[in-house]
Amino acid sequence: MKKPLIGITSDDYLKNNTPSYNNNFILRQNYCSVIELAGGIPVIIPYSNNLIKEYSISLDGLIISGGNFDVDPFYFGESINSDKVKTKPSRTNFEIELTKEILNHDKPVLGICGGQQLLHVILGGKLIQHIPDEINSEINHEQLNPRNEPGHEITVKRETRLYDIVKKTKLNVNSAHHQAVKNQPENVIINAVASDGIYEGIECNKYKFCLGVQWHPEYLVNDSDIKIFMALVDASKN
Ligand SMILES: [Mn+2]
């Protein structure tokens, strides 16, 4: 049986912050190695708005990766309210258009960290623009220890897709985010929560497989993390 082709959106790296032929599309290796481990074929997706239709036809599933930037609050009807918000307009625009087209084909989508936040916005949700501005938390969601170690615990809600995948109500996860999902619009199910109330995962059962996690499971911090990628790969088989 053919292994499913899983696209992973890339980040951009502008050398000296100026557009030039030295620019790069980049992606951390473990996004790719976990897909290989889970039985899929990883492929890194460069941004080209001209190829969105072709990408959505060729790919069997999509990972929206994270990055050190934020979705422009314009997309959820707000203006920027924190100087900690950094945007990447061309990346966000491409990821929104690609994800919508993949969802139109009802192909599986997994949003990771900032990718989960983008997925939430596509599904009609809003984001907390900077957690410390809005929530008094005992948890530092930008953990200081390495990302291959846990940052905090989360509670997975029963009767969710995520629970079906991990079969546990408590997970120790890493945490590298200063924004978070803010609300629960129609069609969005919050499937995981931290002890301070910050939402740590979303899903939408309007689609075959539409899942977002606030942590970075590609670091395989706990035994359940690989199951998320196996579920994505499995759902991407036709
Ligand atoms: Mn967190």
Layout of strands and helices, then pairs:
Elements: E1 5-9, E2 11-13, E3 24-26, H1 29-37, E4 41-45, H2 52-58, E5 61-64, H3 89-104, E6 109-112, H4 114-122, E7 127-128, H5 131-134, E8 152-156, H6 161-166, E9 170-173, E10 180-181, E11 189-194, E12 199-203, E13 210-213, H7 225-235
Parallel strand pairs: 1-4, 1-5, 5-6, 6-13
Antiparallel strand pairs: 2-3, 7-10, 8-9, 8-11, 11-12, 12-13
Helix pairs in contact: 2-3
The chain binds manganese (II) ion.
Description:
- This protein has a single domain, classed as 3-Layer(aba) Sandwich (Rossmann fold).
- It contains 7 helices and 13 strands.
- Strand 5, helix 3 and strand 6 form a beta-alpha-beta unit.
- Bound molecules: manganese (II) ion.
- The site of manganese (II) ion has 8 residues, from loops.
Strand content: 15-25%
Q: What is the SS-derived class?
A: alpha/beta
DSSP helical segment count: 7
Radius of gyration over all CA atoms, rounded: 17 Å
User: How many distinct folded domains?
Assistant: 1
CATH class assignment: Alpha Beta
Q: Biggest sheet, open or closed, and with what strands and sense?
A: 9 strands, mixed
Neighbour order of strands in the largest sheet: 4-1-5-6-13-12-11-8-9
Distance between the termini: 9 Å
Give the cofactors and ligands. manganese (II) ion
Q: What is the number of E strands?
A: 13
One letter per element, helices H and strands E, the order comes to: EEEHEHEHEHEHEHEEEEEH
- How confident overall, as mean pLDDT? 96
